[in-house]
Each structure stands twice: as C-alpha cells, then as structure tokens.
C-alpha cells in the first residue's frame, strides 16, 4: 500500500481498478475537508492522461514495476532513446511518458537512470534523487537576498522551468530534488 503522502513523480498505483503512473505533481490545496494533492497521471494500459485530486492520507495498492538501469543515449525529437547497460538494447520512450522527469536528464549526463517496465512495456523513468543542472535563463539575482524563501522562475539547460531563490543567476549550476522539482543548493563543482 502507498499513501498519498508518499506519491512522487514516477510512482505507480491502482486507482479505480486501473494502473496509473504519476507524471507531474500539480500541488496541494488545503481547505475545510483537509488537504487535497493534485496530480497529473497516465493510465499505463490505455495511455490516457488525466488530472486527479486525492485526499491526503488516502491509501492505494502499488503497481509492480520492474526497473532496469540505463543511460540516455540521445534524443530524437520527442523520443528519448536509452541504452541498457547490460544488453546494450535500445529502449525508446516518448517525452510525454517521462513527464517532469524529462526536464532532469540530458544525453550529456554521466549518471544512470532507471526505466520502469509494466508487463514488459517501458512506462517511465526514474532519475537520481538529486541532479545538477545549469540555469540558462532567469532574472538577475538580488544582492543580499540569501534567505532562499522568495522564489523566481529559472529555465534549465534542458528547457525545463523550476523555481529558484532570488540569489541565483544565469549560468549558475544548481542541485535539484527530482522528486518534487525543488531547489536544493548551488552546485559545489564550479
């Protein structure tokens, strides 16, 4: 069993008798009835996507997924090609199958990712929990603001947009938590 609080991008669970995989965390909404977690999910069997609002603490059956370690070889349009590190087989996934995880990986990366399979079909990818990316565009940093509490949008080298503290600038290398897309710290590899 998996509860709503444990669900992240790439998590798979049964909902109303069908297997779903989470593609994007859309946020939380609190109200009188409690907290509702908003998700964009994809039906693994039919391929259809939909937005769900799940109550916090709700429990679901987990879907058995098989993981294989792969490396991203290249991107051809919206198709991501991965190479199995043991058999050297090519596994192709569409960008929409990767969800938000497409924004965290690039063919230039030297880390491995895990592709998840459901009944022999590739359905998603799990990058490492923390990845380092370069900011290609954001508004100029504000001198003296080091609190990190106020956030601004920043575009990464993969084209993905994340929220970063005001002190970040273009060309900064930052560490991102891939579970929720949050800023962790500036990279120490400069």
Q: What's the structural blueprint in terms of helices and strands?
A:
Blueprint: E1 2-3, E2 12-15, E3 18-31, E4 34-43, E5 49-55, E6 59-60, E7 66-76, E8 79-84, E9 90-94, H1 95-98, E10 113-118, E11 121-126, E12 130-138, E13 151-156, E14 161-165, E15 173-177, E16 182-186
Antiparallel strand pairs: 1-6, 2-3, 3-4, 4-5, 7-8, 7-10, 8-9, 10-11, 12-13, 12-15, 13-14, 15-16
If strands are numbered along the chain, what order do they take across the biggest sheet? Answer: 9-8-7-10-11
Major pleated sheet: 5 strands, antiparallel
Which word captures the global form? flat
Mean pLDDT: 85
Estimate percent helicity: under 10%
The number of E-state strands comes to: 16
Determine Rg (CA atoms, Å): 18 Å
Oligomer class: single chain
Low-confidence stretches: none
Strand residues, percent: over 45%
Structural class: mainly beta
- For the record, give the distance between the C-alpha atoms at the N and C termini, rounded to a whole number: 42 Å
- Count of helical stretches: 1
Order of helices and strands: EEEEEEEEEHEEEEEEE
Structural write-up:
This protein is mostly beta strands. Helix content is 2%, strand content 54%. It has 1 helix and 16 strands. The strands form 4 sheets. The chain has a 5-stranded antiparallel beta sheet. The longest helix has 4 residues, at 95-98. It is flat, with a radius of gyration of 18 Å. The termini are far apart. 27% of the residues are buried. The mean pLDDT is 85.
